[in-house]
Model the fold of this input.
Amino acid sequence: MDQEVCDSSSSRRLDVYRVTDANLSERRPLLILETTTNRWQRFLDLPGLGILCSLFSGVCFASCSLMFKLIPSMNPLEIATCMSVIQTSIFSSVIIQTREPLCGAPAERRVLLVRAVSGVLACNLSFYSLRFIPLADVTIILSSTPVFVNIFACMFLKEPCGWFHVATVITTMTGIFLITKPSFIFGKIQKNCEVDNIIIGSILAFGSCLAISVIMIAVRKLRSTNYATINLTFSILLIIVNSAILIITGDWSFPSCGKEGLLLSLMGVLVTFGQFFQTAALKLEEAGLISISRTFDIVIAFIFQVTLLDEEILWTSVLGAVLICSGVGLLGWKKWKG
Done:
């Protein structure tokens, strides 16, 4: 009898790591484990592990943006393509091991395509925005994603939307407006950056933010498609689209094997780990708490900008960061409590 109870308990623990159509994609691990141990289970039950994974994810993404800033001579599309080649190799090995269908669940392939197209737009727009405005400003604008995810959920998923959501959008948009620093209000307050560059960079970052919001909505719909399949589809599409654009425009050039090659390799690995930690965080912790903890990315970006990039931080960026963090934090707190 005791043996049957033990076998039943072990079977339930193993079911957590098996991929079935009934499981949600965000609850699946990146790799399928054949056996689990009590030590591993105790590790998963550690308090605050989800928050820690979210912080690690923020460090990975911020470090990737920093390395992009350190390669100013390369075309952003080329950098994204080289980074995606590394991701493709990693996620391909995962799919081979897990034996997942390459094209995802048949009923979800249209949504999978929407997620891949939105991912290509988000990646390219965010990289181009880093060419125009400082690292911290891009990070601040991208951190407002949870607010717009909530608005899109109200529009497309018919989720309830009240005055609280409208207030968070107004607060967030005010923060983005301060980061944009329109000259007709603030004048020219930054010596080393043209006003037109600030506006263009802010628009590109905001476009990336909206694309990421669409990604989040699409992922909610991908209930039967494995996480590795989702990211592999995005990586392959990005390689195809960016390579075609680079060949047509004649901007394609192979990176050197020195500093550029090393930074590109690190970027590909960091983005992969960042996505892994982000998925683990959402699996282990409430989405509201994860939204609040992701505002820590802004602190990391400010540190990188001052210590490594020697870029000036303006009071408008700090005030905009406070407003955006307030909007995201209040929204995350409401979801956590609700």
Notes: The CA atoms of residues 19 and 28 lie 7 Å apart.
